[in-house]
## 1
Amino acid sequence: MNDFDVAGLATSARIVLCCGSGGVGKTTTAAALGLLAARNGRRALVMTIDPARRLAQALGLTELGTEPGRVPGEFGTGELWAMMLDTKRTFDALIEKYAADEAVRDTIFANSYYQHLSSQLAGSREFMALEKVHELARDARFDLLVVDTPPSQHALDFLDAPTRLFELFEGSFVGALLQPYRVAGRIGFGLFRRSSDAVLRVLERLTGFQVLADLSDFFLAFSGMFDGFKARSREVTEMLHGDATRFLLIAAPDPASLRAADAFFVRLSADRLPIGGLIVNRVHDAPGLLDGASYQLSGADLEAVGRIPDARVDGRLLTERLVAAYRDHVCAAALDESAIRDTELARHDIGVRRVPHFNRDLHSLADVAAFADSLT
Amino acid sequence: MKRPLAEQTLIVVTGKGGVGKTTIAAAAARRFAAMGARTLLTTQTPEPLEAAFDVRLQYQPQPIGERLWVSSLDAQHALKEYVERHSIVPVLYDAFLDSKALKQFTEAAPGFEELMCLGKLYDLVTSANYDRVVFDAPATGHAALMLRVPRVIGKAIRGGPLHRNALKLELMLGNDAQTAVITVALPEEMAVRETIDLRAALRREANIHPGPVVLNRVRPQLFTVAEMNALAALESTGVALARMVSTAKARYELSATQALHTAELQRRTLDPFIVPEVIRQRHDVPALLDAVGAALAPMLGERP
């Protein structure tokens, strides 16, 4: 449960991947890390998925933010860059790269299953995020990439995505789908129909035919690109295990988001991926509050509130409110702390940094800087 | 304009990840049951409900209180039921259902799992076993996808059992006398924005008229401006008072920020039902659900 050196991480790592459930301040944390690195003379690129509008504006991410752009501001010799990840466009670029010819490329682009896969299928966003990271990791303009990972429905999609996609392509079902095509070329579904086994006939009956036609069209066009994609995927895996790569877990101090962080931790450990630490945002800070907390005002304090010379202020009522707010705060601080201590992470040697609740939205560059200050 | 629920049988609860959908769904279900309605609480993602009720959810509804049942919606299981109903040669389907091929197909085919789960939901809603079926739905992005699946599939597949199935689901979801979609938000920028976007998407893409908005975990403003000014002007305070003034300031700022986001919803005529944050009973699940349920009473159509 020891603290860890967040600023040191920002000055030594090459790739930092921020993992956590939605709404825990991942984007702000990623931006603050980039800012810390820039202040230390590094050239940092923050890659984000879906930032809050005003934070996006602060980072200079307007409509055209899908390529790296400089964030305005003075960072000494360092530079801060930011960009938004565009899943669909990244996927399209990969197809462009690996498609044997224009006909194959166009077939894939026009295929409705591809359109679904590239924009919506669970895991494809994550897959493409990694693909873009891999591409930019070799870009000489940047010393550090900070990646704000997609808020996954299932937190682990981010890591499983490439494997799942390949299993899908290579699986027996797809093989079965492609088989008649491989034998017969593109003669048509008459032959496919005759040669299909009971399984396919059941599916056909249940689903109607177009779904199958679309799927097999897609996989047929795609089959020529497997090798390119697989080589690419191995390189991405190597990158994630690299010496200068760190996974940073981000959470809020509530049980659900800490459970998600735990799930990440277990999974990352199983894959021997390097964990930088846990950052818990919006913690009710309690220095001096919890020890011998007294929920009363007495003596001079009580008199001071009672003597407030303002007709609109009722001293007795204000005293009650002060006590109520204080009790809420102390109680929330205790709950935050016990939620953090209850995690699996707490039982291991993972550094934990608590960032206090700012009690307001953080959306200007000055806010990001204030957040960054609290990390040093 | 703030309209409480009417007699809808299906109550879908959705919202951004982490806004407390499960808490709202569970509290509403308990309250319905307490009001005398036979209520089923069901979900596709059982873990949060299992943690809340300390029970292992099953596909078959099981009772966990008076007039209250819980269950989970599992696509593979729902598909098995569906196939059995349409089957001619049951033996064939058994072999087929256990196959890895089927699992891969349902994962690959767009919207297939969602369609199967919605189909099961339809069966539960129309079974006459329950007066209310509360569906603790997936988070915003996935929920929007799920709720428009019937429409998309109904268009893509012309004819056959799947087409008819999709059509009746679209009718169920689109009928706001039968289905209420509750969107849960937090008084935070991103959650409010997602709520507004989700509601627009449901209207546009799924022909669903979203129901009430719930703003969860609100910390009501405790202090007036005059009080904060007076506290700031206090000279030489003792340690206890100094700490209280500093927590008061934090609370004032937080509540003021939250009020801005509430106003943003109201500006878009999405006047939310407010659920205050439950701090002291956060770890006592029944007490938490009772407190949230009481706050939801106006939305659930209870007269004060």
## 2
Amino acid sequence: MPSLPLALARAQDEPLWTFHGGIHVPDEKALSNAEPIEPLPLPARLVIPLQQHIGAPARPLVAVGDRVLKGQLIGAPEGYVSAPVHASSSGRVAAIEEHPVAHPSNLSAPCIIIETDGEDTWAKLPEPLTHYAQLDPAELRERIRWAGIVGMGGASFPASVKLSPGADQRIRTLIINGAECEPYISCDDRLMRERAGRILEGVRIMRHLLGAERAIVGIEDNKPEAIEAMRLALADSDMDPWTRIQAIPTLYPSGGEKQLIRILTGAEVPTRGIPAQIGIVCHNVGTAAAVADAVLDGRPLIARLVTVTGRAIAHPRNLEVPIGTPAEALINHCGGYREPPRKLLCGGPMMGFTLEHIEAPITKALNCLLALTPAETPDPGAARACIRCGRCADVCPANLLPQQLYWYSRSRDFDRVQDYNLFDCIECGCCAQVCPSHIPLVQYYRFAKQTIWAREREKRQSELARQRHAAKQERLERAERERQARLRQKQAAVAKPAANGAAPDAAGGADPRQAAIAAARERAAARKQAQATTTATAEEAPKE
Amino acid sequence: MSISIASSPHVARVNRVDRVMLQVLAGLAPGVLALTVFFGWGVLINIALAVVFAVLIETAFLLARRRPVLPAIGDLSAVVTAVLFAISVPPALPWWLTLLGMLFAIALVKQLYGGLGYNPFNPAMAAYVFLLVSWPVPMTTWLPPAMLAEHALSFGESLQLIVSGALPTGLDWDAISAATPLDAMRTQLDEHLSIEVIRQSPLWGLVGGRGWEWVGVAFLLGGLYLLWRRTITWHIPLAMLASLGALATLFWAIDPQSHPSPFFHLFSGAAMLGAFFIATDPVTASTTRRGQLIYGAIIGATVFVIRTWGGYPDAVAFAVLLMNIAAPTIDYYTQPRAFGHSRGRT
């Protein structure tokens, strides 16, 4: 920390707010953050999932056997909340099939599998938009959408959607998340240290796009080098009047979007709402750098930084990895395992999930491969009874009552559990970490959420079925009514000529021409009627 | 639902139930020591008996309920219940009353409700009240503190008294027993004696009963230890002691001759023990922070009301049990405002 005084002097510029709860966990960043980012050699096979984002999976644009170039669009977004995928290197499409992917379910998903040719030949890329300040925001958004950029802090929500808050939302503040509060992970730390300028360029583009008044980069104070690098880069730029690099106290989960917004602005994102509602948009530092790549270089998102760490890894460090590289290749590149890991995780130890298939590919939002030794992730043992000590409530950043949520999730009282605001739970894991009874609390909440979602889906489906049934009933009844009406008409038509014969028209002066026309009309109607009735009996539901 | 170790978080857990209980036991140590110093070996004998009974009864019930025995015994909650019960009862309590108390606490109040975490009432206090209303005489026959005792019972005499009920030769109950300060104060106030006159008796120390007040100080120290270790939070003890102290101050200020000082209330009877070790029992107390303030404050007030106008000299057990019933309702109405919710609603 060569110029700490600067850091300290600036840290006090603006007030910081706090959120309820949070925990201090050993950050374990030193395991992996000392060495510079190292590019991973190109693997022989790239497995590119068509869905690496929240929203609809992309539609493949290539066929098996096609030659693809680096940066070529190979999957097109389907719908608004979706993102395209690109080839991370040049080669041949070997297969388009289900392949294990990094997902909490550990299920397979459709992927485009590319056998690389080692040439790494670039496709023709779109023009750099260095003059973006003169461009219409829509054009910039289109570029960001084309580049397939998603939230790179782990959320994987399409960035272009988040950058389109809508005409009625005035965005005042752009928040850039460099908190990296999960223990062990250090890829954002290294990115800020090594590519601070690129991040700031991304910030400038996004601020222009949103028309925001100011930008705040929030970084936990356990990363003094990153804070310093960002401040130096800011001093080199002309962004100083509206950008602030803000050190925040290290406290998990400060990097949660809602928590970071609270810390930096004092505002709370309303429950079930989004930050844009309070004039704020928040993006990760990695996303900002990717936006700069897309706009200034015309490069799509085809590589990302991944922290490979944990005490089971022989040589933990940060790698720059082509999207689609199998996880195995990263671990091997880091010297393999020092000792057999007890768990291999995607993401950090607080919110990550276990990776069962080591051949699963790196995706746009996968920031960390974490191989933990038995000592690092000891078996918590069987859960004991909740003693209602309330420590979980003390640390809950959403200020919920986790023990009540647990109680009602366990007893499957899904109405009550929602009364206690289950859906405000961000699954950060603080409650489970402090629970003296070692209850896997987060698992109960996920179970309750999934069950409630499944029930709502079921309810929607049965509602749809009910509507369909009602519509069918309605249609059948209508057909029946019409059939009856036509029958009556026909009977009337048959009876009419007789009546006509018996008593001449009261209007008098029976025009023979008129009568002939009427008779012909009746005959035609009767014929049509007869036809329709036959069809109706045959088909049950006649087309009108 | 199956419990999987695969669920996040994957870091080591920082707390353990048995460590929490050990901290409580450590916090009780100064109080137990003080009680032993002033009231003799009977205190320790009672504790030993209660712990053995509690563990045996809990084991039997766990076996009967086909539940794993070791984890439940190992969480030390039965031991804490036993110690809390044993230090609440007179030091010469016959052994079979301790047995009955533990049967009531562990079997009825705890295990029949589902074991640790499911009992709506504080087991130790429920057992205490059960014995107090059923066997009032032995439950109120206290020994005098050592400095006032004509004859300090030896370990053998204490054991004999507890096990067989036989008094040492040449002594009768009147010789070895004495009223508690709360009891003495209450009886003499009923006789319309003024505090000034009452306090002339050698029974009194600095602010409360001789010896007794130091027991209170010892429990206060243990309680501070629990606060320091964050085993408990300040909410319940402070609310309880503050409401008891405030009411006592109010009445003492109005009429100091017929109402003892707030210090007397705070350092007599089970005020300190109750505030730090009994009202704070997490299973049966309120769990929201605002709820705990209400819970503690009403216990303190109830203790004062019963001590001053009720039928018993002390009332911690009654007050705690009463508020145990109210805890779930208090919790429901004192939910904290969740993040992102407007301030108006809970």
